[in-house]
Design brief:
This protein is 18% helix and 27% strand. The chain folds into three domains: 3-62, RNA-binding S4 domain (Structural Genomics Hypothetical 15.5 Kd Protein In mrcA-pckA Intergenic Region, Chain A), CATH 3.10.290.10; 69-161, Pseudouridine synthase (2-Layer Sandwich), CATH 3.30.2350.10; 164-299, Pseudouridine synthase, CATH 3.30.2350. The chain is α+β, with helices and mostly antiparallel strands. The chain has helices spanning 16-23, 29-37, 110-116, 149-160, 234-242, 287-295, and strands at 3-6, 41-43, 46-47, 59-62, 81-84, 88-93, 140-146, 165-173, 180-184, 187-189, 197-199, 208-216, 220-227, 263-271, 278-282. The radius of gyration is 24 Å and the shape is elongated. Strands 5, 6, 7, 8, 9, 12, 13, 14 and 15 form a nine-stranded mixed sheet that branches. Strands 1-4-2-3 form a four-stranded antiparallel sheet. Strands 10-11 form a two-stranded antiparallel ribbon. The chain is built from six helices and 15 strands. The chain starts with a strand and ends with a helix.
Length: 299
């Protein structure tokens, strides 16, 4: 494959490698550097170095581009879009849906569905385009995806600094007596089952969850949970550790009659990665919660 660009006034004076980084999002900076060093990039028909300064009307050719990889398979699913602009998408993920494919042959995912809908996702990974954080398959609610590399980098940095605020709703078995408290218990991957986490000290990572009681029911409690850290299965493991397993949790909970997990990503707060505006999104609890409320007495 081959691509050709003509330098306009906006890009006058820009370095060759910087120009290509902007105009070829699918190529990493390392790949661009390699192509230039291998003589597969020319300016006005001549091979140039990465630091070459471009001028208006220069013609830049990329020769022998790698063949595009096969895109994710089509998957048709109704994904509610809460917000979308040129940089980000906020979705209200249904429960029982994986966020991204674990391997190229798996297609029933949120990412596949969004691409099938024609949505653009940042080309940061073959299997995880646009994905900056995840929700468990069984968990429903708000999720951010990046549409550009710039947005992806900005959101990843906010997650790293713990600037993105996430609040969940959960129905748990048992009557939680304390009105509000913090769970500060480290977690580690379970050696016997690598797909699970457990409380532990050796090789563990800190895990902090803030808990507040919203309403008591006869044999259960509706909770608000805020993640200070974002470990795998953090809320589910923390609540199990305290003796208040989430209703419908087949991995960490007790056996009950519920086939769906009663955990919902209710609220998101963050700064827009492109222009810095503070954004807040909220998703009401889904139908499975409402039906539970109607069929169980609250106190």
């Amino acid at each position: 494959m081959k691509r050709k660009f003509t330098v306009n006034q906006e890009n006058d004076g820009k370095r060759l490698d910087a120009f290509l980084a902007v105009h070829s999002e699918a190529l990493s900076r390392n790949k661009i550097k390699t192509l230039i060093e291998e003589g597969k990039v020319s300016v006005n028909g001549k091979n140039k170095k990465a630091k070459t300064i471009l001028k208006i009307d220069d013609v830049v050719d990329i020769h022998a581009l790698p063949a595009p990889k096969k895109g994710p398979a089509a998957f048709f699913a109704e994904i509610p879009i809460v917000y979308e602009d040129e940089d980000i998408i906020i979705v209200d993920k249904p429960d029982d849906l994986v966020v991204h494919p674990p391997n190229p042959d798996y297609q029933n995912t949120l990412v596949n569905a969004l691409l099938t809908m024609g949505k653009k996702l940042a080309p940061v990974s073959e299997l995880r385009p646009g994905v900056v954080h995840r929700l468990d398959r069984e968990t429903s609610g708000l999720l951010i995806l990046a549409k550009t590399k710039r947005a992806y980098a900005g959101l990843v940095e906010q997650f790293k600094k713990r600037e993105i605020k996430k609040e969940y709703r959960a129905m748990v078995w048992g009557k939680v007596k304390q009105k509000a408290f913090t769970i500060d218990v480290p977690l580690v991957r379970d050696r016997k089952n690598r797909l699970k986490m457990k409380v532990g000290l050796t090789g563990s990572k800190d895990a902090i969850t803030q808990v507040e009681v919203i309403k008591h029911f006869k044999e259960s409690t509706l909770l608000s949970l805020k993640l200070i850290t974002g470990r795998m299965h953090q809320i589910r493991v923390h609540l199990k550790f305290l003796g208040y397993p989430i209703i419908g949790d087949k991995k960490y909970g007790k056996k009950d009659a519920y086939s769906q997990l009663f955990l919902h990503a209710h609220r998101l707060e963050f700064f827009h990665p492109a222009h810095g505006t503070f954004l807040t999104f909220q998703s009401p609890v889904p139908q499975r919660f409402l039906e539970f409320f109607l069929t169980h007495d609250h106190i």
